[in-house]
Amino acid sequence: EKGGYDHFMMKEIYEQPSVIKDTYRGRLLANIGIVQMSGVEDNLEKFLNAKRILVVACGTSWHAGLVAEYIIEEFSRIPVEVEYASEFRYRNPIINKDDVVIAISQSGETADTLAAIKLAKENGAFVFGVCNVVGSSISRETHAGAYTHAGPEIGVASTKAFTTQITILTLLALRLAKAKGTLSNSDYQRYLLELELIPEKVEEALLTNDIAKKIAEIYKDASNCLYLGRGYNFPVALEGALKLKEISYIHAEGYPAAEMKHGPIALIDESMPVIVIAPNKGHYDKVVSNIQEIKSRSGKIIAVVTKGDTQVKALADHVIEIPETNEPFTPLLTTIPLQLLSYHIAVLRGCNVDQPRNLAKSVTVE
Ligand code: M6R
C-alpha cells in the first residue's frame, strides 16, 4: 500500500506530479485559454463583487493560503487576508456580507476551521471550501468549493495536499484575472501554459532526492535550523520549517529573509544551518545579500536555486537546483526539496516519519 516506498510520506511526495495534474485536469484548458471550476463559475459574481477575500486555515493549509494571498493579489487585484482559523474565530473579527471567505483544509475536519466557517456564515459571508476529502464536514458546511484531487494523504506531515491546494488557488486567481481583465492577454496565456508544465517540472525537482539525502546526512544532528525566503517563497520557508519540526523534532523557524536583520541574525553561528530559498526570480539580488550576511557570521548555507545559478552557488555550502518557472509558481517547485530534506533527516534520526509524536492527522479538537 506504500507503493514500494518505505513510508507514506515518501510515496505522497512522489505522487505530486500526477496529483497536481489530476487537480487541474478538466479545469485548465491552456491551449484554448480557459480556466473553469464549476464551484467558481456558479458563483463568479460573488467573487467579482468581493471587496476582499479572507482565507482561514491551519498549519500547512494556512501556508497554502499565504501563497494564495500573493497570487490572488498579483493576478486579480482583490485584497486578501489570511488568518489562522483559531485566531479568527475567537477574536470578534469584522466580516462583511460582501466578503468571500476561503476555507482551506486537507481533511475537511479541522475543528478550528469548521468553527471559523460557521462564524463567517452567521455573518452573511459567502464561504468557498478547498478540501481534499470528499464529503468531509467542511465540504458540506461551505456554500461551494473545489476539491483538490490529491487522493488519500496518510502521512501526518502534509505534502501533496499543500501543492494541490496551491494549484486550485492558482486556478482561482487566473479565473478571476480573466474575468476582471487584471492580467494582459499575453501574461494570462503565458501563465496557463506554464501551469500546465508544472507536473513535469515537479518531476524534475524530485531528482533532488539524492542531494537532499546527502545534505541530511551532514545536518541530521543539528538542534536548530532557519529557513529563509522572500515574496512567494516566504510561505515556503514557513512550510519547510514546519515540516522539519513535525517529523524530525529539530527546532526550526521560517522567516522572510529581510527580517533577519531585525533579530534572528543574532542566532547565526557556525552551528546554524540556514536554508535559503533563492530562485532567480523576485528580489534575487536581495537574497544574495542576505546570504552574504549569513556567510560573514559563519552560518552554514543550504540554498535552493534555479538550475544554472552561479551567484548563490559561489557563496553557499550546498545548493539544490530546481527547474526554472514563473515567479508565482516557484513555490510548487521550491517546496519539493524541502519536503525531501525533512524526510531524510527524520529517517536518519530514527523518527516515526508517518506518525510523529503528539500529532494526529486531523485536529478535531479546539
Ligand atoms: O486537514 P487540514 O488541512 O485542515 O489540517 C490543518 C493542519 O492541522 C495540518 O496542515 C497540519 O499542520 C499538518 N500536520 C502539517 O503537516
UniProtKB/TrEMBL annotation:
Keywords: Aminotransferase, Cytoplasm, Glutamine amidotransferase, Repeat, Transferase. One of its GO terms (molecular function) is glutamine-fructose-6-phosphate transaminase (isomerizing) activity. It catalyses: D-fructose 6-phosphate + L-glutamine = D-glucosamine 6-phosphate + L-glutamate. It is an enzyme of class 2 (transferase). Transmembrane segments: none annotated. Residues 43-182, 215-356 form the SIS domain. It is found in: Cytoplasm. GO terms for cellular component: cytosol. The active site is at residue 361. GO terms for biological process: carbohydrate metabolic process; fructose 6-phosphate metabolic process; protein N-linked glycosylation; UDP-N-acetylglucosamine metabolic process. Its EC number is 2.6.1.16. Catalyzes the first step in hexosamine metabolism, converting fructose-6P into glucosamine-6P using glutamine as a nitrogen source. Homodimer. This is Glutamine--fructose-6-phosphate aminotransferase [isomerizing]. It comes from Flavobacterium haoranii. The gene is glmS.
